[in-house]
Amino acid sequence: MNAEKKPTVMIVGAGLGGLLLGTLLHKAGISFNIFERSPTVKQLGSSIPIGGQIVPLFTQLGLDKDLLNIAKPLEEFRVYNEKRELNYTLAFSDYEHLTGHKEYMVARPALYDLLIRQIPPERIHRSKRMLTKLDANDGIIIKMSDGSTYKGDILVGADGACSTVRQRLFDRLKNEGKLCKGDREHLPFRTVCLVGQTRALDPMEFPQLQNSLCEFCAILGDRRGYTLMISTTPQNTVTWTLIRHLDKTSSADVEIQRLKNTENTGWGPLSVQAMCDETRGIGIPGGNGAMNLGDLMDLTPKELISKVMLEEKVFETWYSGRTVLLGDAVHKINPAGGRAAKLAMLDAVALANLIYTLPSSPLSIEDTTTLFSTYWTERYPAALEELQSSQLLSKTSERGLLGAVTRFVTKTTPNRIWRQVFGVHSRIQVRPIVAYLPAPDEEGKEGKEGRGAGPGAIEGAVEGVVQSSYLKAREVFERRKWADWEP
Predict the structure, then answer these.
(1) Of the candidates 477, 312, 287, 471, the residue with the CA atom closest to the CA atom of residue 393
(2) From CA 8, how far away is CA 358, in angstroms rounded?
(3) Which InterPro entries match (predicted)?
(4) What is the distance, to the nearest Å, from the Cα of residue 456 to the centroid of all Cα atoms in its chain?
(5) What is the pTM of this model?
(6) Can you tell me the distance from the alpha carbon of 436 to that of 457, in angstroms, rounded to the nearest whole number?
(7) Is the pLDDT of residue 1 over 60?
(8) Beta strand pairing status for 313-314 and 331-332?
């Protein structure tokens, strides 16, 4: 057997992207450690739609049944106005036709819990806030706020929109005159939101929970700049996301300075409570029509309500030397459609495939530069496309004439047109496939029931172009398999 020493990967950030990357590296037998600044897991977040792109991935991991146990099938999305009147309904049957898999809704905390169970406990280090990093000839060294240091071959920044890894990387590149102008600008945002999940409720008291399908709807404010999205879960909870649309674009730095000048608490508990108080009266459709958002807030533990800024930006710089970025650390997408989480998971698959191809440790800078260049070439255009799509989708919830026109077009466009739009969209066609794991069920190839009739039925393909990360990893997998075979 080949006994070469595989590279060691350090992942900063234990979000969905970081956990999935750790899971994939564990399956490949690659050494890794995950560093999380928080001392405990806080079950925050709303729900995420998951379908044809992600279900086959969990099948490869042997987690498809576990995934479906924490999810509810999603067949339609209903949109209401402020008067609780149904505006239009979007069906998800076209997605199933193209991908061969139903759409599902899963609560983010439940998905997080599923992924973290796949990581050996000794590989997750909590209360580890990274301060500095140092590139050495034979690796990279990171120092934590508690004084501890760690060394590895690759550093992955999966630590969210305010990524410390990105800040340290950009500081160095800026000092060297190598950081592009666009990446020096602040993360802009036009919306802020509250997210929450109720405690487990009694289905007899809340009949919507008895439905085997996910009840997924949105209430669009016209007179008020709010959008409320609600979904039910198999855990008999209700997840909710309240999005507030701002009149102008801002940034975190601008808000921090404003708060200093006004001595306002800003993003603290008082700010959360203020936003809750001013939106309690938003009506929720269904039942006897007497339920408001305030009722859901009262059913939600206070510590599970969080307020966040919804930045929107795709950075141009994703890597340098032995450092690479993943997920929100490098692209922050509007939550419309739940695409940010899926985008991070797609990043993780591509990066895991490419790390699998690396030669034995120690690695050279040339090795990591070639690896990360391939990763950027594959994932950067996809992130830009997702940003543009999410911005277009978010227009359906805007106030005024533009929002009204967008909703009218969405409502009146025939399904056959939507099917054509989805069919040529690369984010629908791409399938994240792990090259070194057993392939998903191959029954029902392209054009047959079970895999979908769209071009995406070709594994690893986007508009007919096979993903380079999969091809490179598959080639290495086959070569290693024959090298390890003893006649």
Answers:
(1) 312
(2) 11
(3) FAD-bd, FAD/NAD-bd_sf, FAD_mOase_fung
(4) 20
(5) 0.86
(6) 19
(7) no
(8) antiparallel
Q: Say whether 18 sits in a helix, a strand or coil.
A: helix
Tell the CATH topology of 8-182+312-484.
Answer: FAD/NAD(P)-binding domain (3.50.50)
Closest by Cα among 118, 6, 18 to 325:
18
Per-domain boundaries in the chain:
8-182+312-484, 188-311
Task: Quickly tell me which residue has 């496309």 as its tokens.
Answer: 385
pLDDT, residue 84, reads: 87
Question: In sequence order, what DSSP letters do the residues of 232-248 get, joined into one string?
Answer: E-TTS-EEEEEEEEEEE
Please enumerate, as own/partner, the contacts of 390-397 that have beta carbons within 8 Å and a separation of 24 or more: 390/312, 390/333, 390/334, 390/335, 390/336, 390/337, 390/339, 391/312, 391/334, 393/334, 393/336, 393/337, 394/191, 394/334, 394/336, 396/79, 396/220, 397/218, 397/220, 397/227, 397/243, 397/245, 397/336
At 428, the amino acid letter reads: I
- Mutual orientation of helices 468-484 and 339-356 as an angle, nearest 10°? 40
For residue 219, give both structure tokens: 């209430």
Q: How far apart are alpha carbons 352 and 436 in whole angstroms?
A: 10
d(CA 225, CA 335): 16
Distance CA 71, CA 64 (A): 11
More confident residue, 63 or 276: 63
Q: Is the pLDDT of residue 12 over 90?
A: yes
The encoded tokens of residue 451 equal 């895999």
Q: What is the pLDDT of residue 398?
A: 58
Own/partner pairs, 139-146, CB within 8 angstroms, 24+ separation? 139/8, 139/322, 139/362, 140/10, 140/321, 140/322, 140/323, 142/10, 142/12, 142/35, 144/35
Please report the pLDDT score of residue 263 as a whole number: 37
Residue in the structure block whose two tokens are 């805007």: 398
What phi, psi does 120 have (nearest 5°)? -55, 130
How is 342-393 classified by DSSP, letter by letter? HHHHHHHHHHHHHHHT--SSSPPHHHHHHHHHHHHHHHHHHHHHHHHHHHHH
Q: Cα(183)–Cα(172) distance, rounded to whole angstroms?
A: 13
Helix (H, G, I), strand (E, B) or coil at 433: coil
Dist CA 22 CA 17 (whole Å):
9
- pLDDT of 418 strictly over 80: no
Q: Which residues of 329-341 are buried (b: 16+ CB within 10 A; e: fewer)?
A: bbbbbbbbbbbbb
Q: What is the pLDDT of residues 182-198, one digit of tens each?
A: 998 887 777 788 888 99
pLDDT of residue 441: 61
- Which of 104-113, 149-158, 321-330 is predicted least confidently? 104-113
Angle between helix 468-484 and helix 365-394 axes, rounded to 10 deg:
140
Q: What does the block give as tokens for 89?
A: 């309904």
